[in-house]
Amino acid sequence: MTKVIAIDPGQNKCGLLLAEVEDSIAIDGKISINSSVINLINQWREEHSVELILLGNGTSSKYWHSELLSEQISPIQLVDERMTTLRARERYLEIFPPGFFLKFVPKSLIFPPKNLDVIVALILIEDYFNIKLRWSKSIELKIWP
After folding, report:
1. CB 5 within 8 A of CB 29
2. Could you give the 3-state DSSP secondary structure of residue 68?
3. H/E stretch holding 56
4. What is the C-alpha to C-alpha distance for residues 117 and 11, in angstroms, rounded to an integer?
5. CA-CA distance, 27 to 35, in Å (whole number)?
6. Domains observed in the chain
7. Is the peptide bond preceding residue 75 cis, with omega within 30 degrees of 0?
8. Rounded CA separation 37/32 (Å)
9. Which residues of 9-37 are buried (b: 16+ CB within 10 A; e: fewer)?
10. What is 70-136 written as a DSSP string?
11. Torsion of CA 103, 98, 24, 29, to 10 degrees
12. Residue 145, SS3?
């Protein structure tokens, strides 16, 4: 079973997603402040047999690549994250469809949460492996300390 962590790196926070690729399942996802990212990755690596880290090549990716290597976290694969932030809104609405009354409102008028970093990390995995992930549980899109 291939488990992968994807990271959407940011200036102050990162979106992280842990997924089981062979079964196309998103196991866990969090938006973490930068000071807690390494701890979260190490926790997931201890609990699961993580085989690969996918790191978005956008904002602050050089910093995070260096940090991961200095913590002996590997293998790391840089992946193209162009347009993923824009795509995250639509993907969010696919995963968490609007309730009954909002079904009749145009999607362009429905505003998902502003912290979609986890959804961007999900898209990184989906693009890299050419799969669609499904959630194994409810994932909160709030920023974790």
Report:
1. no
2. helix
3. strand 50-56
4. 12
5. 22
6. 3-135 (3.30.420.140)
7. yes
8. 6
9. bbeebbbbbbbbbeeebbbbbbbbebebb
10. HTT---EEEE--TTHHHHHHHHHHHHS---TGGGGS-GGG----S--HHHHHHHHHHHHHT---EES
11. 160
12. coil
pLDDT tens for residues 89-134? Answer: 888 888 877 665 555 555 554 555 667 899 999 999 999 999 999 9
Residue 132 to residue 43: CA distance in whole angstroms: 25
Tell me the pTM: 0.88
One-character DSSP codes across 23-50? TTEEEEEEEEEGGGHHHHHHHHHHHS-E
CA distance 76 to 132: 21
Give the pair of three-digit tokens for residue 68.
């991961």
Which tokens is 135 given?
A: 């959630």
Structure tokens at 17: 């997603």
Residue with tokens 């409102």: 105
CB 132 within 8 A of CB 126: yes
Report the distance separating Cα 2 and Cα 119, nearest Å.
Answer: 20
φ, ψ of residue 68 in degrees (nearest 5): -65, -45
What is the pLDDT, as a whole number, of residue 136? 72
